[in-house]
Specification:
Layout (H helix, E strand, L loop, with lengths): L4 E15 L2 E11 L2 E7 L4 E2 L10 E6 L12 E3 L2 E4 L5 E7 L11 E2 L6 E4 L12 E7 L9 E2 L3 E5 L2
Parallel strand pairs: 3-6, 4-7, 9-12, 10-13
Antiparallel strand pairs: 1-2, 1-5, 1-8, 2-3, 5-7, 8-11, 11-13
């Protein structure tokens, strides 16, 4: 995960189609507030909690905004991370510095007693998540700059 910050797309899975000649990849179509967006979910895609994706499931998919994409409609991206989204929840993924501030300054984390922190394979993470690549799930933020939140869950992608 070389990109310092990933772009989230929130949507509901409309359909999942196997890709021709790529047995380990599927094309997942999401219905979003901006219309249909397609994601390639392949062997390198991290599926949070290894859930089985299905039509009707609300998800958040992350992609690298600096990666080249084909100019087609609807847009199609390579999903780096995808997972189930809870109602009224936002997500962020990327590098968070030693102050737990996102690389793009869009979010600062305050770890709470109810914040669950785990590694990508689901094991408890007992160190500070500062200075790591994280996937963060939260519901509310302050109106400060950068916005601050106490996340519900943090997944640490150990380097």
């Amino acid at each position: 995960m070389a990109q310092s910050f990933l772009k989230p797309v929130y949507g509901v899975i409309q359909n999942i189609t196997p890709m021709q000649d790529q047995c380990c990849s599927s094309l997942v179509s999401l219905f979003t507030s901006d219309g249909i967006v397609r994601f390639i979910v392949g062997p390198d895609t991290f599926v949070i909690d290894n859930v089985r994706l299905f039509p009707g499931m609300p998800v958040t998919a992350f992609y690298d905004p600096d990666s080249p994409v084909t100019l087609i409609f609807p847009p199609q991206y390579q999903a780096l991370i995808i997972g189930r989204r809870q109602q009224n929840e936002s997500a962020s993924a990327g590098y968070f510095d030693e102050n737990l501030t996102a690389a793009d300054q869009s979010l600062q984390l305050n770890i709470g007693t109810n914040t669950t922190i785990s590694t990508a394979n689901g094991q408890p993470y007992r160190c500070s998540p500062a200075g790591q690549y994280l996937a963060v799930f939260y519901s509310v933020t302050t109106r400060s700059i950068p916005p601050q939140t106490t996340p519900r869950r943090i997944i640490v992608f150990c380097q």
